[in-house]
Design brief:
Two copies of one chain form a homodimer.
Chain A: H1 25-32, H2 35-46, E1 55-56, H3 61-70, E2 73-78, E3 91-98, H4 109-129, E4 134-136, H5 164-176, E5 179-188, E6 194-202, E7 208-213, E8 238-241, E9 244-248, H6 257-265, E10 270-275, H7 279-282, H8 286-297, E11 300-305, E12 307-316, E13 325-332, E14 336-338, E15 354-361, H9 363-372, H10 380-390, E16 399-401
Helix pairs in contact in A: 3-4, 4-5, 6-8
Domain CN hydrolase (chains A, B): 92-362
Pfam family, one (chains A, B): CN_hydrolase
Protein name (chains A, B): Beta-ureidopropionase
């Protein structure tokens, strides 16, 4: 089922945290179960093979050659939708890039950023030559994810929305007629030079359509982002592009069902979730939350996670009583796409850079709104009232106390 | 890992819809992967084996004997929590029962109900003798799930909250000092004899603590419940019992993140999800939604699904253009428990009656609220405002339109 077009490519990183040296859950199961069992497990776990199977896409040789030459995972799938009478199919090709950084964090900041640009070029070229319409990079792709350190010097990486990282991508957007979602550390020049975690949406003409700032900021494990930036002030914008209505739920926002909901209420058809998250903390949540959001909100979700282990010059503690250490843990990649019909693609590698290409007919969103009716059966009035009461300090929960609570068992 | 205490028990139903005759996903993987691979797959899929493993519980021989004699699946697990300095552990033993009906739907209604009572007795006895504190039965356990037919005669099964099904369970609640959650078809005598889908909460002294009515009613596939009853009018009550604060999200409500949220806002520590759902429609969603709710709301979720295939006297159509047929499809069981740390138990059988017993330290809920902080980082004010605006007919979504949308690609 998967498109192991670069099966011979070199591994970028040894699977240090793996006990069995596999590349992805999907391949581990496929390589070790008989075909009947694998098919049934896929049906239960990914909603595949129940009637409509997910199809692989044939990519141009130029893309395959780039993946082999540069050692990145390249997989491509297609979701199908029913044919309608009054609407033509609206098939969009989405590309997701996951990557490790390119130079040690001790290198000059300018060199680090430039090296990431150079590393990404062939992967972006492979996207463009494969006809990708909307391309999304991982969270803060233009820097190491240094927020674990709590050192403010990493703020130097921040750029205005129209800074060098945006300019770098604008040329590709124009060249390949692609919409590109670029998540950066933003320096807000017009508001006291403050820092934000921001996604810039670049239109297919190379224009900047707008930006969205991360709504929910973590305070867990080594995710010390609240030291660097505040909760976003851009609401839940949906960007209407030539390829469909898209939105961005940045990283930790995926743990917040209301965040997913609000993008849906504003009409999103694809919600991108550019992330940076590590194995010990979140890996069992990774295959759950995005799929739940796709099901509950009848849209596609495209999940991207950073890859690799980044080591910093100065050791730091993690608030867990353990000794100081200099790395954040393993970013486990595993980027994938979830559909409103509860199916999902296999995930990219846990260890290597990768490009996941997925064709999706956006008509599937409304088809599943009609089929399951969640938007109609949701009783939003009830919850507007509940939340309106909850946010008041004097809120009293609805609790029915057993009147015999303190009587001894007979 | 699983407690295959009744490995030799007879199968109640041939796995008609299975291509490989396995009993559960968990056993399929365990029996076909080597131990290292199985351990890693379990970590990725269920959050187990990352540090804290889930433990099996030894049950009394009387319970094991009942499971063998009556051929029901019996499994028992324990979740752990960190030891605290200021709170003692609050370990609660929860039991979930999944079952098929006992007589053909053509039998006299009184006989059908009585036969279900008789069938459940040994499973409830096994629960009681195993020291279960809170027991939950499946949705509308006292009748066939006849709402696919749209025939109103099945309303005869409905009972008042203090009717015969409640009385049947009250004696066990008293005998075993158990809280029992009983989901019935309710006849509301004091309000024009209307019908509701209702869970009755019976206290450990055999008293009725209260009731909750299903909040979200499906209109999908053969789930024609909207023909029989309306959306519940009991809000999102949390029942404070001697064993902890519990709530009930009935069946289709599991597709609605706001429903899960509201029980959490009211303080639930365990939310039960008594369900009746069939393979072709919902099976890939089943392992997703409950776990997402447990993660997002920092509580335990106990999911129960009915088992078996029920055939009705008169054929009905399904609005899918296919020929009329007389059954609803296969109710796939697979009851399981999800924890706030993103782990979950293996599931019960897809084919057989079953009792799943789980020990959970309710301290884990607050520990994960403190660790992940979702309740603090949720920005409820923002969403109270969003929903308040959304429910107005004149709502305008937040959309940023690419100003170059209609310019041709260069």
């Amino acid at each position: 089922m998967e498109n192991r077009q670069n099966g011979e490519a070199k591994k970028e990183e040894e699977p240090k945290d793996s006990i069995c040296g596999y590349d992805s859950l999907h391949l581990l199961l496929k390589d070790n179960l008989n075909p009947h069992h694998f098919q049934e497990v896929s049906r239960l776990l990914t909603g595949l093979n129940c009637g409509k199977a997910i199809e692989t896409i044939a990519l141009p040789e130029s893309a395959t050659a780039l993946s082999v030459e540069h050692g990145f995972d390249l997989q491509a799938f297609s979701f199908s939708a029913d044919k309608e009478q009054l609407r033509e199919p609206r098939v969009v090709r989405v590309g997701l890039i996951q990557n490790s950084t390119a130079l040690p964090t001790t290198a000059h900041f300018a060199d680090q950023k430039k090296a990431i640009f150079e590393k990404l070029k062939p992967i972006i070229e492979a996207s463009g030559s494969s006809g990708v319409n909307i391309l999304c990079l991982q969270e803060a792709w233009m820097m190491p994810f240094a927020f674990c350190t709590r050192e403010k010097r990493w703020c130097e990486f921040a750029e205005p929305v129209d800074g060098e990282s945006t300019k770098f991508l604008q040329s590709f957007a124009l060249k390949y007629n692609m919409v590109i979602i670029s998540s950066i550390l933003e320096r807000d020049i017009n508001h006291g030079e403050v820092i934000w975690n921001t996604s810039v949406v670049i239109g297919n003409h190379g224009n900047i359509i707008g930006k969205h700032r991360k709504n929910h900021i973590p305070r867990v494990g080594d995710f010390n982002e609240s030291t660097y930036y505040m909760e976003g002030n851009t609401g839940h914008p949906v960007f209407e592009t030539v390829y469909g209505k898209i939105a961005i739920n940045i990283c930790y926002g995926r743990h917040h069902p209301l965040n997913w909901l609000a993008f849906g209420l504003n009409g999103a058809e694809i919600v991108f979730n550019p992330s940076a998250t590590v194995g010990e903390l979140s890996e069992p949540m990774w295959p759950i939350e995005a799929r739940n959001a796709a099901i509950a909100n009848s849209y596609f979700v495209a999940s991207i996670n950073r890859v690799g282990t980044e080591t910093f010059p100065n050791a730091f503690t993690s608030g867990d009583g353990k000794p100081a250490h200099a790395d954040f843990g393993h970013f486990y990649g595993s980027s994938y796409v979830s559909a409103p019909d509860a199916s999902c693609t296999p995930s990219l590698s846990r260890y290597r850079d990768g490009l996941l290409i997925t064709d999706m007919d956006l008509n599937l969103c409304r088809q599943f709104k009609d089929k399951w009716g969640f938007r109609m059966t949701s009783r939003y009035e009830l919850y507007a009232d509940t939340l309106g009461r909850y946010v008041k300090p004097e809120f009293e929960p609805q609790v029915i106390i057993d009147p015999l609570l303190h009587r001894k068992a007979s």
